[in-house]
Amino acid sequence: MRLTDTVEEWRVTATSTPFTGAKTGVRSDRVEMPDGSLAQRDYQVHPGSVAVLALDDQDRVLVLNQYRHPVRRRLWELPAGLLDVVGENPLYAAQRELYEEAHVKADDWRVLTDVYTTPGGSDEAVRVFLARGVASAEGERYQRTEEEAELRSEWAPLPELVRGVLAGELQNSCLVVGTLALSTALASGGLGTLRPADAPWPARPF
After folding, report:
1. Is residue 148 annotated as part of the catalytic site, yes or no?
2. Whose CA is closest to 150, among 71, 74, 62?
3. In terms of Cα–Cα distance, which of 106, 99, 128, 95 is closest to 199?
4. Which domains does the chain have, with CATH numbers?
5. Considering only CA atoms, which of 128, 134, 132, 133 is closest in space to residue 181?
């Protein structure tokens, strides 16, 4: 049996936006349940994100260490960023984030996986790209600020990342999903089975 997520939308009888921040907001909907009752659903409204699993010719993955205030942790993560440029192609956003956060470029791009990070409380959708043929970018480095000014980068062997994920030592969602998706792809049909970089993305059409 082949499983696939499907589009469905229950009737919203009332909606409001009690908070709007610089990049995201909170929406409150009154949703009609199948039995006719009404329930309130509050969730984060998010523009969407992209993440990049950059893989070098030694099967090492580029990871960044960054402080994340909401969880009071320094997390190892993939280069990633918001889709905060209206109408921007997700691939271009991913290429920009790889350059800005790590001063790295790549010449082979595929879609590794798509994920809703927390669909019970946010509409955030993330596309995780696989980037190969990596090299240092030309020109001056992008000037990072705030938490990003403290970024530290490493090239980590894929098996070590898998071990850390399964041990609960690495917990960033995009790193977890990307690492396990890549490991699965390599162990099954190979990277040639991955979707092209411009594959449709219904969650965030472009």
Report:
1. yes
2. 74
3. 128
4. 12-45 (no CATH), 50-196 (3.90.79.10)
5. 128
User: Would you state the structure tokens that stand for residue 183, as one six-digit string?
Assistant: 């490991």
The whole-model pTM stands at 0.93
If one counts every other C-beta atom within 10 angstroms of the C-beta of residue 103, the result is 15
Six-digit token string for 3: 């499983």
Catalytic residue among 32, 97, 100, 148: 148
Tens-digit pLDDT string for the chain (206 aa): 899 999 999 999 999 999 999 889 999 999 999 999 999 999 999 999 999 999 999 999 999 999 999 999 999 999 999 998 888 899 999 999 999 999 999 999 999 999 999 999 999 999 999 999 999 988 777 676 666 667 899 999 999 999 999 999 999 999 999 999 999 999 998 999 999 999 999 999 98
